[in-house]
Amino acid sequence: MTINDIIITPIYFLLFLALAYMIRSRITQKHLISYFIPALTLKFFGAIFIGLVYQFYYSGGDTYHYFYHSGVIREAFLDDIFKGVSLVLRTEDAPSISYEYYHKLFWYNDLGSYLVGVIAGIIDLLTIHTYSSTALFFAAFSFYGSWRLLVVLDKMFPNNRRRLATILLFFPSLFIWGSGLLKDSLTLGGTFLLVATLLEIKRTSRLTVNNLLLVSVLILLVYTIKVYIIIILVPAALLFFSLTFLERTKNQVIKFAILPLIVAGLGFGAINASTSLLNSTEKYKMDELAERITITAYDIRYHSGKGAGSGYTLGELDGTFNSIIKLAPSSIIVSLFRPFIWEVNSPLMLFAALESLAMLLITFYSMKVGLIWKNLKNPFLLSSLIFAICFALSVGFTFNFGTLMRYRIPLIAFYLLPLLIIPNNAIRTSRDINKIEVGR
C-alpha cells in the first residue's frame, strides 16, 4: 500500500456507497434493505483489512503477486492497447509482440491465477494501480453474489431473514477472506451468484437468454480459477433438481418406481461429469488426482504456504486414493471444526479457532433441537449440506490452517444453512402447536 491508497481509495469508497444508496431499492425488497449498506461497508473494510494483514503480518503473499501482475497488465495497456489485449486474451503472438511485459508475468501459464491478475489489471486502469481501490471492486463483486443469494433464499425461506443475513453477509470469514484482492473473492461471489441464478430459474421455471449467458460466464469464471468448486457443485446441483422433481410428483407409486432410476442416473451422471471436468484440466487429471493432492498438501505444508499460518497433518498421504479415503473423516473435521482453541499459536489462528468453535456449537445445537434432521427433507438444504461436506473433504488436505481459512469459505454458508434455517412448514407447525396450547 502507498500514498495512493490514502488519497484515491476514500474517493472510490464514497462513490461505491453513493451508488449503493441509489440502487439498493431497485435490487432488493424493503424488508432486506436495512442490511444492504452495513453489509457492503463491512465487505469494504474486510478488503482493506486483508491488505493490511498481508502487508504487516505476512509481509507478502498471493495478493501481492496478483497486484504485481495487474500492474504489468496496466502498463501494457498504457503503452499500446494491442499489447494489453494480446496479454489479456493470451494470443499466440503475445510472447513476441508484448515481450517486455510477457517475460514479467510469471503466472502467465497458470490460467487461474493469471485471470485474477488480468481482472485486477483492467480495474487498475480506473484506480491508477491503487491496491485498496482495486480490492474494493473485488469486494463489491463478492458482495453482489452474496446479496443475490440472500434475496433468492429469502423468497424460499421467509421469516428467516436475520439468520440468512447473518450467514451470508455477517459471518466473519465471508466478509474478511472473501473480500480482498484474491481468488477467493471472485470464486465466492461467482459461486453464490451462480447458485442464486439457478435457484431463480427453478423458482420461475423460465430460462432466459440473459440467465443462460450469466450461468455460462459464472461457470467459466469459477471453473477457470478453482475447478474443484464446479466439480463439487455439479453433483449437488443434479441432486437438487432431481429431488425437486420427485417432490413435485404426487403419486407415491411413481415416486418409488422412479427413485432407483434417478439415484442410479444421478450417480452415473455426477461421476461422469466430475471425471470429464477433471480430465479437461492439466492439473487435476483423474489418474493423477491422488498424487496431485499429496503433492499440493505437502507443498503448502512445508513450502509455498509455510508463512501463511501454522501447519497441521491428518496422517500420511502416499499418493494413492486409499490413503485419501482413510483420512477423509479427518479432512472433513479439520475443515469444519479446527483449529481447536488449544492449537492456537497466533492472533489469526485465534480468530479461526473461535469461528470453528462457533460452527461446532451450532452443529450441536442443530442436532439437539432436531432442525438438521428435519431439513434433510428439503431438496436445497440437503444438497447444500452434501456440497459442504464434499467441499470440506477436498480442502482439508491443505495441511495449513492459514491457507485453510481462505479455502473453506464457500463451504461455511452452505454448511450453516441446513443447520439454522427453519423451513416454512416447520414455522407453521410451531405456530399451530402454540395455538393449540393456548386454547387448552
Shape: globular
Order of helices and strands: HHHHHHHHHHHHHHHHHHHHHH
What is the first-to-last residue Cα distance?
A: 67 Å
State Rg: 23 Å
Structural notes for this entry:
The chain is an all-alpha fold and 440 residues long. The chain contains 22 helices and no strands. The protein has helices spanning 3-23, 33-57, 62-79, 81-89, 94-97, 99-102, 111-127, 131-156, 161-169, 172-176, 183-204, 209-225, 227-248, 252-279, 289-302, 321-337, 347-369, 371-375, 379-395, 401-407, 409-420, 424-439. Helix 1 runs antiparallel to helix 2 (33-57), helix 1 packs parallel to helix 8 and helix 12 crosses helix 13 (227-248). The longest helix has 28 residues, at 252-279.
Features:
22 helices, globular, 440 residues
Topology:
Elements: H1 3-23, H2 33-57, H3 62-79, H4 81-89, H5 94-97, H6 99-102, H7 111-127, H8 131-156, H9 161-169, H10 172-176, H11 183-204, H12 209-225, H13 227-248, H14 252-279, H15 289-302, H16 321-337, H17 347-369, H18 371-375, H19 379-395, H20 401-407, H21 409-420, H22 424-439
Helix pairs in contact: 1-2, 1-8, 2-8, 3-4, 3-7, 7-8, 8-9, 8-11, 9-21, 11-12, 12-13, 13-14, 13-19, 16-19, 19-21
